[in-house]
Amino acid sequence: MARRCSVCGDEIHSKIYYGDPATLYSRRPLCELCYFESEPCCYVFFGEDKKPYHITPTRNETGRVFKVKLIGDDPNNCFYTAYSDEYLLVYGQTIHLNHPAEKWFTAFDSVLRQIFNMDRIKYARVFCRTVDINRQRYEVFVKDGSDFILAINDISLAINEADYRVRKQG
Ligand SMILES: [Zn+2]
Questions:
Q1: Distance 38 CA to ligand 1 centre (A)
Q2: How far apart are CA 47 and CA 27, in angstroms?
Q3: What whole-number distance in Å separates Cα of residue 159 and Cα of residue 109?
Q4: Are residue 1 and residue 69 in the same domain, yes or no?
């Protein structure tokens, strides 16, 4: 008897895929399309590594380092958020894409990375999907064992510097 895909419900006649650990469909049978094509809940960037690591409901390219959960009961106002046993959340905000505030965010993100690199803080940035395509959740994590106080302090510095740069541009 053919097994059915846990996402689309179709019978699977070719290779059966199983959801990655630390995903919504963990270990459940899936067809090839649903395994590979499910929409990412978030992208994780580790430090200066340019490669985005996707987490979808069926695949988790971070292994088990990061996981996501959906927050909010209101279907018009829910978003994914990341969590980890190896990294601590130090900053989170919602970015309004194609909005004047995006300028501030771009400055903040760039300054924060520079300061973290100077202070040799191991960090990861996570961009999470929200129900609204014009909004994204941005989260900054530092590796467990990092100087947490220094990281929090660096965030204040980056906020001030981003404020200054945006004001200067007018
Ligand atoms: Zn399917």
A1: 9
A2: 30
A3: 9
A4: no
